[in-house]
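User: structure tokens for Corrinoid adenosyltransferase, please.
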Amino acid sequence: MGIYTRTGDEGQTSVIGGRVIKDDDRVEAYGTIDELNCFVGQAISLIDSANGEFEDLREHLLEVQQELFDCGSDLAFVRISETKYKVRDEMVTRLEQWIDQYDAENPKVERFIIPGGSQLSSALHVCRTVCRRAERRTVTLGQHTDINPSVRRYLNRLSDYFFVVARTANARQQVADIEYVRSKKVFRRKE
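Assistant: Done. Predicted tokens:
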């Protein structure tokens, strides 16, 4: 199988069920999800598997990569039956469980956080922002065509997950988060 096909040379690409221009909202949405998946892979590469400090996070991020492919697949279909969707709300519920688990490790925060700290935390913050863009592209697509609404919910929750695990990466490495000093107190812990 050859890598190049020349079928996209005129600015079109294939989606499942047809062909569209390469900057079609559908391609923008699943293309941004693909970009996010690359950044997740980069974050995984920063985890030192030798000391095991982030083995739980590594396993979760590897699962997220699989699920991001599922998200892209669900968005790549021009027409699909709801029974064929791969992304389900159970995946969103599981992300919420992971968020709660990791957030329990984090120090209390009251203000917005400036992205940064450790290399791993910084990489996870990049994942968070690219995830938000993927979500925006998915919302745009959903304004004029039917999409799997679970993908939108998954991406929304996934960006929250990245925020929390970026903080956990700093906490486990004993690197303080940098609060945005001009921010009012905006976060309150659930009691």
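User: Anything notable?

Assistant: The chain has one domain: 12-179.
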